[in-house]
Amino acid sequence: MKLTDFRSPAAGEIVRSQAGIDAFVPAPLPPRITYADSDLVLVLSRADAALSELSGVGRQLPNPHLLISPYLRREAVLSSRIEGTRASLSDVYLGEIEAGEAGEAPEADRQEVANYVAALEHGLAWVREGRPLTLNLVTGLHARLMQNVRGEFSSPGRFRTVQNWIGPARSTAQNADFVPPPPELLMGCLTDWEQFLNARGDMPDLVQCAVLHGQFETIHPFIDGNGRIGRLLIPLFLVERQRLSQPLLYLSAYIEAHRPTYYDLLQRVRTDGDWIAWIRFFLEGVEVTAREALLQTTTLVDLRETFRAHLMGKAKAHALIDYLFSNPYLSVRHAAQILDVTTPTARAAIAVLEESGFVTEVTGRSWRRIYLCEPIMNAIMGNPKADTQQGDGSRQEVRTATG
């Protein structure tokens, strides 16, 4: 870590840890934010309007749990991909219905995505029970995220007691890009962060959310999984603040598309105390993502109404429609389980969907056939290319060899 880069005392300070490592300790929150920059005010206004519009649509969803499920899985895939996980959304969906039919992604990668979904669902249940966002919630999310996957030996559900750092593979604490607070000062940073997390009325919710995310990534409280937990907390905060009626906003796709800028702006907060540039970037991401989610949600609702109207009077096929929104892939065996009918009856119901052009057989086999509803999959992905892109495997987070 180049100590001369850290030029702003207001951003924090460099300390020598008990282990003799130079580390950065961020200044207590909140930072001083001025709104003299008219551009920042305009970006905030646009982001706020887009978020409010998305929240309004969320309140009108005919079946919120059903139509939110695709967003959870897409976010899980994209957030995990930033950390090098190679599972695609298709892999995840196929893995849910047919063991052994889950594409080329390793089972561990699919498990990481499944863990992300479980962690997010846990967080949403916590918020909907009216419970405040706390460090206990954060450790609970981490425990679920890291269960039975790589990193499971990195103290799941517990804040680190060793030094970590951020940098290229095989970097050390001495030549890393950034070294977070040392273990002995970690809880002080986290307690301050938690107090700010539950502060109200001091700044706009979206600005507070941007600051919270930035500070969490700077503190880097876990040995592994910090990025995913930090991204997962964004929708939880917005739902808890009632800025989102449903968890429809996820920034992982935007962060992945602007990854170098994301890391650079977070580092500038640490070195120069440049919160304004970071907040502007975050707000732009909220606006772009909210408008994309608005289009996707509208498309999914329209598709559901179209399918239901077309299949009216065809009870068994009609009963499969809602399932396809939770998983666009379908097999005869799975349809039989959903409908609680015999295999021939399930096959006949799928035939109705196929004849209507709603599903297409994608394996080319005469046995254990799998059907896909492409309109739903395309609507979920937004950008079809996103489902085929592979993570580059680069993991910026490195722990000490002795830790």
What does this structure look like?
The longest helix has 36 residues, at 275-310. The protein is mainly alpha-helical. Helix content is 56%, strand content 6%. It has 2 domains: 3-296, Fido-like domain (Fic-like fold), CATH 1.10.3290.10; 314-387, Arc Repressor Mutant, subunit A (Orthogonal Bundle). The chain is elongated, with a radius of gyration of 23 Å. It is built from 15 helices and 7 strands. A 3-stranded antiparallel beta sheet has the order 4-6-5. A two-stranded antiparallel sheet has the order 1-2. The relative contact order is 0.16.
List keywords for this structure.
403 residues, mainly alpha, Fic-like fold, Arc Repressor Mutant, subunit A, 3-stranded antiparallel sheet, two-stranded antiparallel ribbon, 15 helices, disordered C terminus
Sheet with the most strands, sense and barrel status = 3 strands, antiparallel
Q: Which percent range fits the helix content? A: 55-70%
Examine the secondary-structure arrangement and name the CATH architecture of the largest domain: Orthogonal Bundle
What count of structural domains?
Answer: 2
User: Widest sheet: strand order?
Assistant: 4-6-5
Radius of gyration: 23 Å
Q: Can you count the helices? A: 15
Distance between the termini: 19 Å
The proportion of strand residues reads 5-15%
H-E string? EEHHHHHEHHHHHHHEHHEEHE
Mean of residue pLDDT values: 88
Name given to the CATH homologous superfamily of the largest domain = Fido-like domain
CATH class of the largest domain: Mainly Alpha
CATH topology of the largest domain: Fic-like fold
Instruction: Count the beta strands.
Output: 7
The structure class reads mainly alpha
Principal-axis shape equals: elongated
Uncertain parts: 100-106, 384-403
